[in-house]
Amino acid sequence: MENVLRPVIVVGGSVVLALLIGWSVDRLLRRVDDRHSETSLWGLLRRGRIPFQLVLFAALLRGSYDEAKLLVEHRIGIGRTLTLILIGAAAWLVVSIATAVVDTSYSRYANAHRDPARVRRVRTQVALIQRVVTAVVGVVAIAAMLLTFPAMRAAGASLLASAGILGIVAGVAAQSTLANLFAGLQIAFGDMVRLGDTVVVDGEWGTVEEITLTFLTVRTWDERRITMPVSYFTSKPFENWSRGTPQMTGIVFFHLDHSAPVEAMRERLRDILRECPAWDGRDYGLAVTDSTPNTIQVRALVTAKDADDIWTVRVTVRERMIRWLTEKHPYALPRVNTAEAVLPPGQHPGPNRAEPDGAATTRHNHAHTPGPSRTGPGRG
């Protein structure tokens, strides 16, 4: 009877005690969370209830297993298994606590500061710090698990003796990996690029969606994901439209006929911007910036509070201005001229005067249309 009750008491007592302590701690954290609702720390710590109970169960059972007198012939293997579970659960608990502390710190900072650029910078640093802590805890846990085996402890001396040579070989073999690792730390604390920044890399416009210690993901405007090593951002130039203030100035070009009503276009641009919610009201302008034998180049300058709004303002101005020109001033649209060449003042073509190349053909084509003419709507 004693051989049956002893294992039940030891194993059952460990399970019940672990569940009871875990439930008590969870109730305590819930009460503290209700009293201090201004911080999310206590609520986040409750996520570590399962690893906490697992640590308690493994520790209690590991310490009292010898008293259970259960499977004595497998005592060493079971004890080592419980030790491995204890180490893994402890690492899980440490990562959960660290994640709760980091997330709470970021939430407090985000609520206290309204500057989006500073918040994105801290968010990037916090995300990379969390990954570093997770990686370090994982490596330490794996090393502790391996050291529980006698063979690994015996091989420790030889591993230390060859550590120098292995370190050199590993450094050469993993040169690109190490470069990306240090580049990730440089990005996190050098404030070069942050989560949520609008960037242009390799001609692609998008938003930084994820930053790790080795790679960075950019989500483009058409929902594609571009993944590239973080060392790219430390070795090559790129555009960061969110650096400093997010305000932007956009340009819309129009290629029009020389007779385009520029003054009327300025007034129309003002009316379009007043009806566009994405325009921030800071500035606007319209000017002729270039001319060719066939057209003139008109530049409209607009402003907006960020990259998304500047895109909206540009496409709105382009669409509504072209529609207005088509409806109200169709003659301003570019076209091919087919009129006769105008001679200099005081010169008239005579019977013996040589004509420019193509002039006779032009006059022949317009023999039945007196005076200069222009093809296209709006002109006769």
What percent strand? 5-15%
Order of helices and strands: HHHHHHHHHEEEEHEEHEEHH
- Span of the ends, CA to CA: 116 Å
Number of helices: 13
Helix content: 55-70%
Low-confidence stretches: 353-380
Please compute the radius of gyration using only Cα atoms. 37 Å
| Anisotropy-based shape | elongated
Number of strands: 8
What would you call the structural class?
Answer: alpha+beta
* Strand order, largest beta sheet: 4-3-2-1-5
Question: Would you write up a description of this structure?
Answer:
- The chain has 380 residues and is of the alpha+beta class.
- The protein has 13 helices and eight strands.
- It has helices at residues 2-35, 41-45, 49-68, 75-112, 116-147, 150-154, 156-161, 163-173, 175-190, 232-235, 262-274, 307-328, 359-365, and strands at residues 198-201, 204-211, 215-220, 225-229, 239-240, 248-256, 279-291, 296-304.
- The strands form two sheets. A five-stranded antiparallel beta sheet has the order 4-3-2-1-5. Strands 6-8-7 form a three-stranded antiparallel beta sheet, covered by helices on one side.
Task: Kindly summarize this structure in a few lines.
With 380 residues, the protein is of the alpha+beta class. It contains 13 helices and eight strands.
Topology:
Elements lengths: L1 H34 L5 H5 L3 H20 L6 H38 L3 H32 L2 H5 L1 H6 L1 H11 L1 H16 L7 E4 L2 E8 L3 E6 L4 E5 L2 H4 L3 E2 L7 E9 L5 H13 L4 E13 L4 E9 L2 H22 L30 H7 L15
Antiparallel strand pairs: 1-2, 1-5, 2-3, 3-4, 6-8, 7-8
Helix pairs in contact: 1-3, 3-4, 4-5, 5-9, 11-12
